[in-house]
Write a structure and sequence with these properties.
- By secondary structure, this protein is of the alpha+beta class.
- It has a domain at about 70-175 and about 190-255.
- It has helices at about 1-20, 85-90, 100-110, 130-135, 220-230, 245-250, 275-295, and strands at about 65-80, 115, 130, 145-150, 155-160, 170-180, 185-200, 210-215, 220, 230-235, 245, 255-260.
- The longest helix is centred in the first third of the chain and has 20 residues, at about 1-20.
- The radius of gyration is 29 Å and the shape is globular.
Amino acid sequence: MKKMKKTGVFVIALLIMAGSQLPAQDQGTTNNTDPATWSGLDQVFEKQERSLDKKPIPYPPVREADISWSKVVWRLIDLREKINQPLFYPTEPIGEQMNLVDVLLTSIQKGELTAYSADDDLNEFKRTITYEQVLEEFDAKDQVTEVIDVETGFTRTDTIKGEIRKHEVQQLLVKEIWFFDRKRSVMDVRIIGLCPIRLFFNERDTNRLDLNRKKLFWVKYPESRPFLAQREVNNFINDSEKRTFDEIFYKRFFNGFIVQESNIYNNRVINDYALGVESLLEADRIENQIFQFETSLWEY
């Protein structure tokens, strides 16, 4: 019993000695965190400034003689789908952070990227349009209207500032070409063009019964890659691992379904000959046809 008491006294003495060696905390100091491991903001480390001078990920070289099969398809991406939301948000710029449409519009406005009309379904890159014409597609041109001044009773002209409703761009049409490269023995894909699609209701449609769908403009994807590679995208799973728009498209971190394939019937779309569930089944058939072509080349 005496031995247990001595052991307890010895343990208490050790704890008192260890406590006496700890630095006394200053009552007036609210944060004694080591500045080497705390940035004082929202990170546990000092975040380094990263320059946005990234270049697009280079594609493997491809020769025409090595392409034994190819197929052009148009894929519709719903930006509201969770996996596609990094392309959709933020709907308005937050600092340097932009969504896909903002990056394209900024590049077009600066004259760094060429926009093409979306009126001709057979020639997406035939007629170029200006930034002002792009604004017309958004119904964002300034409008001059006459109103009656309630104080004087006379009419006066007011200018209604046009507004780009980027949150209405909820879909993206992607033109891509799938091909088999026999030199590398792989089925590969290249994105050719991007076309934002606007979904909106007319102002007179107060009950929101008639949803309008409008293709705004086309851009050539290879021309847009330098700008997409310089803009980071939020990762909703991991804040420490951010990707660029170019990396998302290159690594195909998106989901969509085929709405059209190149064909002899005036390049008709699937909805011209299949509706509802049948159109989805037809899209799956085309998708499977592409991948079955690769597997049918091998014998086991």
